[in-house]
Structures are given as C-alpha cells and as structure tokens.
C-alpha cells in the first residue's frame, strides 16, 4: 500500500515518552520497526470496559476527537462545525488548567477514494495528499488547536490497525465466511433489509433501494469476506448504555442507539475482497482481502495516543489520553461510533470512550446541503467574508446537537450585528469611553457587601454566569453557554443605559456612582470575554489586551465576579481603541 509522508502540525503524543513533547521523525520509525506480530494480551483489569476507573487517571489529559474526514470531496461548513466544536471544548479544559489533546485528520482508504481518484485521473495517494492538505489548511485558517493531525495512510496507523486485527482474531471475534446484503458505496457499509427501503425514480420509473438511516443508495452484494462477531456484543453494549445514561449526547441519540440494540445486531463484514477494493490496508496474513474502511478509520483514535503502547508503563499510558473523554461526530455516523467502535474496543479488551457527542447537521434555505443542488457552503469563503472568530461564534451559537440549523450569510450578519457588535462590542465601547473615563484607569471596585439597588440584578447575573457556563460546557451545549453569556451582556447594557453615566460625569457629586457604573460595565465585558475565549480565541485576546488583563489573569479561576485587575489595579491602563466589531454586510 502506498503511504504518505507525515503531515503533523504537532507530532503525535506519547509515542515513546508519554509527554506532550515534539519527538523526532526517527522515533516513529523505531516504533514501527519495533512492532511485533507476537500477540500481547492486555490485562483485563486494565483494559476492560471499566478500564478508565482502574487506571490511575490523575495525570490523564483531556482527550477529545473530531471524526476523521473522508477525502473524496473538499471540506464544507459541516466539517468545520465538528472541528470548532471539539476545539472549543479542548480550549475550555485548558482554560481550567488541564492538559488537553485534540486529534483530527483524514480518512483516506476505501472504495469511494479509489473511484474518485480514477475519475480525477490521479493515483489514490495523490488525491489523498491534495484533499487532506485542503482540510489541514482549513483547520489552520480556523485556528483549530489540534495536537495531532492524523492520516490513515501513515505507517504508524497501519501498525495500530494490524494490532487491533490480530487481537480480535486471536480472541475469536473475527472469522471468514460469506456475506450478502445491501451495500452502500457512499457509506462504505452493509445494511440489513429492515434498514432499507425501496424508492422509484420519478423520471425513469426505475426502482432502487436506499439506506433509511442515511438516504444513500444501496445495492445487493454477495461476497466472501472476514466478519466480526458484532452479534456477541448486544448485551454488553446494552449494559454499557444502561449503566452510563450520558455516554451518548444528546439524550435522543442515546435512546436511538438503545433502540438499535433492541432490534438485535448482525455480524459485521470487516473486509472487502481485493478484487473489488485495492486501496486499503491488507488483512494481516491474507493479501487477498483489504481491511473494512470503518475498522481502519475508527482505530485512528488509538493511533494518535501511541497505540499499541509497546514497552510503555501504566503511568505513560495514562498520560497518552486514552480513553477519549469525548468523541465529536455528526449524527449520520453515530452507528459506527456508538455501536461498531465500542464493540471493537470491548473485543480487544480496551476501554470505551467516556462520551460520544453527536451533533446535528447544517441546512441552507431549510434544505439539506448537496453538491448536486449546489447549496454547499464553502467554509473558506465564509471566513473570508466575516472573519474566523465570527464564523466560529456562529457555529457554536446556532449549531445544535438535536435540531439541524440553517446557514446563510444573512443569518451570520444578523448574529454579528445584534450580538457581537450590538451587545459585546457596544458594552466594550461604553465601558472604555474616554468621555466617561478620561484617565483610562480601571474604575474602583465597589463593595460587594452593599450593592446599589440599581446594580443588584446585574450583580446576581455576574455571580451566576460562571456556573451556568460550566454546566453548559459539561453537557457539551455551547448554545446554552453563549445564551447565558449574552443574556448577562444584555442586562449589563440595559443597566448602563438606566444609570445614565453621561449625566453622572457632569456632576461632581456623582463621581463615586459613575465609578461603580463604569466598573460593572467593564467587569461584565471582562467576564464575558474570558468565558468566550474557547469560542473566539483571537478576538477575545484583543479585547482582554485592550482591558489590560494580563496573560496570567485569563484562566478559569479568574472567571469570577471581582477577580479582574486584582493586583496593581491603579497602574493598569485601559486602551480606548477602534471598534472591535466594525460594520459588515452579507454578500448577496
């Protein structure tokens, strides 16, 4: 199999040392050469489905993943949504002082790649190199702080996949047999008859079949291949979900997976004959078959942790990150991540992910985005039109876990004008106004024991805000977090208007009250900006610089009422500047 060169922004974590350091390329070569076909059976006490509790997790970093993206087509706004969602939670945990790992990358094997390359007149690896770079360029442009960018055509990934295969084969969970069923080339998956429905082409009258779950066309296929005993894991998967009611978010997706399990599971095809598929990882010991793309692809989440963890101590394994704390996926690939993937892990005696977060999709004009319709949103164009942080904010503010969200330039412009410019930007400009605060000094902090009656509502909102945001982020609901933040900002603006500081500045007797009004406005801006850092890292840094908030005052412990400018407040200088959110117009 042809392999690509390494395309890593920050090379893989803990391949040998278990640290978040940058190992050299030869380190990976040594790891690959050191891999042995000798089977190493992990201890069940360490790698059972309860392994996360058994291993010392004291130093475990927070590990979150995006799905790896298929390179048969260029990235769209939905791909960016997955990446920004994962990046937001990774940054949030870093803000709280925890080391964090974020992996993303591209899925580069399978029949769709083979066909797309042939249509483009390219070798498969040439197509993979081209499209994978486009995804990496997008994530760099969108300020995705990934720690590893994984490609499934890398040699290190083949090592991990072969180890998983050998372990499952040795444990008796893989066998060779004949398989027939409805196969979707687009989904790279077989579907049982109960998950398929017949359709009629309105133009030709011809009958065809689609997978109910994805709407993709399927065809009846019969072939010899290797199969995984998925049916043997119905009870264990059911027990896992019953005992962990928040393992899959949102709750509706959790219930959906449980309903699948109640319907029963069939054994899963995990290889394709080389006569049908050549672009993939060969089955160890049988070159006439190629690895099923989903077993190959899903293993990437282990690859980036240095799996198979050869010659590593338990403490080194713990800081590699596994099991994943959260795996972000689109709802269309939930079955692969919530049924197949945990079953593979259980079969290999490895810990399952702690949480699977399945988000909804994006539409345009309330219609599903489709290349054939021509309504697919180019994320590069969107960021050029509105700026990176604006698009990041829109995706986190409007993109949900349950219901599909609509995308349009007009909607983005509306959120920008009303929330970013009209609320946050307006409060920043008001609180740093030279006309009201010509000294550019931080206003004197009022006593929390004697809050002015006009400030009590805002004061309570400021006290409650960190807890509301923390709860929202713990439940992976960025929309709830932004709602709480902008609810507070709206109250801060209303309070500012009600107190009329432009009148207080003209009255010497109103000096102390003016200082209090300005402090609440500035403190509201500071606190909101701190909490928006994971979503809008660049713009929030600019605002905090303007407010003279030092780099060591931007962590979670400072995201509390009254925890800004706690040292040397009298020497700080607020920088009045140009509008942080200048006017923008949506392009027609």
From TrEMBL:
Gene3D superfamilies: 2.170.220.10, HUPs, Isoleucyl-tRNA Synthetase, Domain 1. Coiled coil: none annotated. Belongs to the class-I aminoacyl-tRNA synthetase family. GO terms for cellular component: mitochondrion. SUPFAM superfamilies: Anticodon-binding domain of a subclass of class I aminoacyl-tRNA synthetases, Nucleotidylyl transferase. GO terms for molecular function: ATP binding; methionine-tRNA ligase activity. Residues 62-431 form the Methionyl/Leucyl tRNA synthetase domain. Its EC number is 6.1.1.10. InterPro entries: Anticodon_Met, Met-tRNA_synth, Met-tRNA_synth_2, Methionyl/Leucyl_tRNA_Synth, MetRS_core, Rossmann-like_a/b/a_fold, tRNAsynth_Ia_anticodon-bd. The keyword Nucleus does not apply. One of its GO terms (biological process) is methionyl-tRNA aminoacylation. CDD domains: Anticodon_Ia_Met, MetRS_core. It holds the Pfam family tRNA-synt_1g. This is Probable methionine--tRNA ligase, mitochondrial. Keywords: Aminoacyl-tRNA synthetase, ATP-binding, Ligase, Nucleotide-binding, Protein biosynthesis. It comes from the Eukaryota. It is an enzyme of class 6 (ligase). It catalyses: tRNA(Met) + L-methionine + ATP = L-methionyl-tRNA(Met) + AMP + diphosphate. It comes from Linnemannia hyalina.
């Amino acid at each position: 199999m042809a392999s690509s060169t390494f395309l890593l922004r920050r090379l893989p974590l803990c391949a040998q040392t278990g640290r978040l350091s940058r190992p050299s390329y030869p380190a990976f070569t040594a790891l690959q050469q050191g891999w042995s076909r000798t089977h190493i059976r992990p201890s069940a006490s360490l790698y059972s489905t309860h392994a996360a509790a058994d291993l010392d997790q004291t130093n475990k970093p927070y590990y979150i993943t995006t799905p790896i993206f298929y390179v048969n087509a260029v990235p769209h706004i939905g791909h960016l949504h997955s990446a920004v969602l994962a990046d937001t939670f990774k940054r949030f945990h870093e803000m709280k002082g925890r080391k964090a790992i974020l992996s993303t990358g591209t899925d580069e094997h399978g029949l769709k790649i083979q066909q797309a390359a042939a249509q483009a007149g390219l070798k498969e690896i040439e197509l993979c190199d081209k499209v994978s770079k486009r995804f990496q360029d997008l994530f760099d442009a969108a300020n995705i702080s990934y720690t590893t960018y994984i490609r499934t055509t890398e040699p290190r990934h083949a090592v991990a996949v072969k180890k998983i295969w050998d372990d499952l084969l040795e444990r008796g969970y893989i066998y060779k047999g004949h398989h027939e069923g409805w196969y979707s080339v687009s989904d790279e998956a077989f579907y049982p008859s109960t998950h398929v429905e017949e359709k009629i082409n309105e133009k030709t009258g011809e009958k065809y079949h689609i997978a109910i779950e994805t709407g993709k066309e399927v065809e009846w296929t019969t072939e010899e291949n290797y199969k995984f005993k998925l049916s043997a894991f119905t009870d264990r998967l059911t027990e896992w979900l019953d005992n962990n009611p928040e393992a899959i978010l949102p709750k509706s997706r959790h219930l959906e997976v449980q309903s699948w399990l109640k319907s029963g599971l069939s054994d899963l095809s995990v290889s394709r004959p080389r006569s049908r598929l050549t672009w993939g990882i060969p089955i160890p010991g049988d070159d006439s078959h190629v690895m099923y793309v989903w077993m190959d692809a899903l293993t990437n989440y282990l690859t980036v942790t240095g799996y198979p963890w050869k010659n590593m101590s338990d403490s080194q394994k713990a800081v590699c990150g596994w099991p994943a704390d959260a795996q972000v996926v689109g709802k269309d690939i939930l079955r692969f991540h919530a049924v197949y993937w945990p079953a593979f892990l259980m079969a290999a005696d490895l810990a399952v992910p702690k949480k699977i977060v399945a988000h909804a999709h994006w539409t345009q004009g309330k219609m599903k985005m489709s290349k054939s319709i021509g309504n697919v949103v180019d994320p590069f164009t969107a960021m050029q039109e509105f700026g990176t942080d604006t698009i990041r904010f829109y995706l986190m503010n409007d993109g949900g876990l349950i219901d599909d969200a609509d995308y349009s330039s007009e909607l983005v412009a509306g959120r920008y004008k009303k929330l970013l410019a009209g609320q946050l930007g307006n409060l920043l400009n008001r609180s740093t106004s030279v006309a009201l605060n010509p000294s550019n000094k931080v206003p004197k902090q009022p006593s929390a024991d004697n809050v002015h009656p006009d400030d009590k509502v805002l004061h309570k909102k400021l006290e409650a805000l960190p807890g509301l945001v923390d709860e929202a982020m713990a439940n992976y609901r960025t929309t709830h977090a932004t709602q709480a933040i902008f609810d507070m900002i709206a109250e801060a603006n209303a309070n500012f208007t009600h107190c009329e500081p432009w009148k207080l500045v003209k009255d010497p007797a109103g000096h102390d009250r003016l200082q209090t009004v300005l402090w609440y406005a500035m403190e509201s801006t500071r606190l909101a900006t701190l909490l928006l850092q994971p979503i809008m890292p660049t713009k929030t840094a600019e605002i905090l610089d303007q407010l003279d908030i030092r780099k060591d005052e931007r962590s979670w412990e400072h995201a509390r009422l009254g925890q800004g400018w706690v040292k040397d407040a009298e020497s700080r200088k607020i920088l009045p500047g140009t509008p942080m959110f200048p006017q923008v117009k949506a392009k027609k």
